[in-house]
Amino acid sequence: LSLENPPVGEAVRASTDHPTSNSTSFSELERRTFAIISHPDAGKTTLTESLLQAAGAVHEAGEVKARGDRRRARSDWMKIEQQRGISVTSSVMTFQRSNILFNLLDTPGHQDFSEDTYRTLTAVDCAIMVIDAAKGIEPQTRKLFEVCRLRNVPIITFINKVDREGLSPFTLLDEIAEVLQLDVSPQNWPTGIGGLFHGLYDLRRAQLLVADRSDGVVPGRWFDTSGIDDPAIAEVIPAPAVESLREDGGLAVASYPAFDLAAFQQGDLTPVIFGSALKAFGVEQLLDILADDGPPPQAQPARPAPVTPDEPRLTGFVFKVQANMDPNHRDRVAFVRICSGKLQRGMKVLNTRQGKPMALHNPITFFARDRELAHGAVAGDIVGIPNHGILRVGDTLTERGDVTFTGLPDFAPEILRRVRLGDPMKVKQMRRGLSDLAEEGVIRLFKPLIGSQWIVGVIGELQLDVLQTRLEQEYGVSLDFEPSPYEVARWVRSDDPALLKRLTETLRSNMADDQDEVPVLLARNAWEFGRFQQDWPGIIFSAVRERN
Ligand code: G4P
Question: Which ranges are annotated Polar residues under compositional bias (predicted)?
Answer without folding.
Answer: 17-27
